[in-house]
Amino acid sequence: MATLNSIFHGVREYLNPILKNSKFKETGVLTPEEFVAAGDYLVYKCPTWRWESGIKGKFKDYLPKDKQFLITRNIPCLKRVNQLEQGAESEMADGDWISTYANHVPETANEIMEIEEVADVEDEIDDIPDIDDYCQIESDGEEQKPKHNPNILRTRTYDISITYDKYYQTPRVWLSGYGEDGAPLRPKDIFDDISQEHARKTVTIEPHPHMNIQLASIHPCKHANVMKKIIERSVTGNREVRVDQYLIIFLKFISTVLPTIEYDYTMSSEF
């Protein structure tokens, strides 16, 4: 059953007008057309990502029917957040964003964590990351698949989807997790793989807008503000940001919220 929170958001999204003019540099938001352009760029450069149509009755008329949302599957998650080294710190923005990954699981799947003001973003996101950093691709161009080796410990895996949130006018991330045995993870288990202290992001279990399933979602209320700061710092550093690069930068940011879900495990230190 959908929560009152998700119902309320659905009504707001329905009533909110579609953004027509580009404002991604000024405010960090995207028009539906810009979301599609950024998605096309991600899919072109990183074939592990693909467009999906979703359920027929859930089409959004402001997006192409064959490009309703993005998804990547079978992303490894080698360990839980509470297994990270005690005292591990994540510094962002002038050294004043420091988070310790606490061993915390919400009492209920729909618990909404406190939202604090997003700090400046600078140290951890120095430049626009190389698009190839997010392409887990074999040399022959085929999508990399998990190796079935009895000597390798089986791990959790995640399917990650990105939708366009019409109300917040930003991408929104959804998580579907699977245990070492391939069985779907319970909501409380998924929270083990989300940084609970990182910027106090809101995480809830809500209906996916394009599928008949409830999934964990990172609430997009702060996404535009964070993206705006990242873009501003890139421009200040004399690096022009194109709108089609938006999702590449966005994934870099999201990797700090999902520290153990290794969709960027091939990342190099070079831009």
UniProtKB/TrEMBL annotation:
The keyword Nucleotidyltransferase is assigned to this record: no
Coiled-coil ranges (or none): none
InterPro entries: Atg3/Atg10
Organism superkingdom: Eukaryota
Signal peptide annotation: none
UniProt keyword RNA-binding, yes or no: no
A molecular function GO annotation: Atg8-family ligase activity
Protein family (similarity comment): Belongs to the ATG3 family.
Main location, first listed in the record: cytoplasm
Protein name: Autophagy-related protein 3
GO biological process: autophagosome assembly; autophagy of mitochondrion; glycophagy; nucleophagy; protein transport
Subcellular location: Cytoplasm
UniProt keywords, alphabetically: Autophagy, Cytoplasm, Protein transport, Transport, Ubl conjugation pathway
One term under GO cellular component: cytosol
